[in-house]
Structure to design on (58 residues):
């Protein structure tokens, strides 16, 4: 979930700053309850499991 006022560029820069990763694409949607959700596609040279461990999902 991201701030409703955040645009794709701001989300991309925040991901780069917080997790030190390169983002290839950002898709966003605003849910019916008013929250904004962002889907982030990483650059192709990243290993998904390494990133998941880095941001402590796994």
């Amino acid at each position: 979930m991201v701030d409703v006022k955040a645009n794709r560029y701001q989300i991309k820069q925040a991901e780069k700053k917080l997790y030190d990763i390169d983002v290839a694409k950002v898709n966003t949607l605003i849910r019916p309850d008013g929250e904004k959700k962002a889907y982030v596609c990483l650059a192709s040279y990243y290993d998904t499991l390494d990133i998941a461990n880095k941001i402590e999902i796994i």
